[in-house]
Amino acid sequence: MHSIGLLVYPNFQALGLAVLTVFEYANLMSETPAYEFTLVSERGGLTTCSQGFSVHTEKLRARTYDTLIVTGDNECRLPPQSLLDFLATAPEQSRRVTSVCTGAFVLAAAGLLEGRRATTHWYHAQAFRQQYPDVRLEEDRIFIVDGPIWTSAGMSAGVDLALAIVEKDLGSEIARSVARKLVVYQRRGGGQSQFSALLELDAKSDRVQLALNFVKENLAGDLSVEALAEAARLSPRQFSRVFREETGQSPAKAVERLRVEAARLMMETTRHPIEVIARETGFGDRERMRQAFLRAFGQPPQAIQRLSLPPEMTV
Residue 54's closest CA among 7, 14, 99? Predict the structure, then answer.
């Protein structure tokens, strides 16, 4: 039986409670219950969340939790020093110490992230870097595992982290069953970006938006500057200038990012071989797609595919 402790403190964000549902459903999907989970706080009793209602918690106990999860709050406020002192020694007692969203600030304040890779919500990344320069923050990640320390991005990414824990403990089939039960088609891999490429491009004019829509609808087709300029009803020279001014990127770079995003989504939601995905998303061949994935994610397509499909389905 794996013991899970979800640690909250006053003004915590209630969405972080969702991670316990992952372990609840894992018990339902297993032949025998695999997890014992408890909502805990430093002193126990009622703890009030940022929305104003209170939840009952048990007192944080000294005996080992297999996995201790620290949730976050909206303002990155820290709990009392006495709780930070407890967390400083948590890795000696627990196999995994993890955080959800701004809970990374708590782990960092307890000294658990120094010299380690970690992530947190992108909105608070700059403040995190200023306060904890010795942490190797990677804000453009859903979750990161560095030894016994696991950190996740936003609150919903805590569900991805919890699914990854279930996969590690119980196997990929149980994790996929839990994801389906939660109406999460597939869990997202830790290397996935927190951002949507299309949202980041944020076109300000109708003409550039026309070009981006054209890209999205014709990923496997001709997406040269000339083709995009024609869709935007501008000359190639005008289009290149306006596109860079509005998005901060060249048309070629934007096309690659949109193709990479579409390819990654196909990997996580279909069983198509890499060659088919490369062709369908306009890369043409797997080597061109591999180079684009290395630039975008620092890992090849096969690594992302392995996170989403059972080993016998990967190519």
Answer: 14
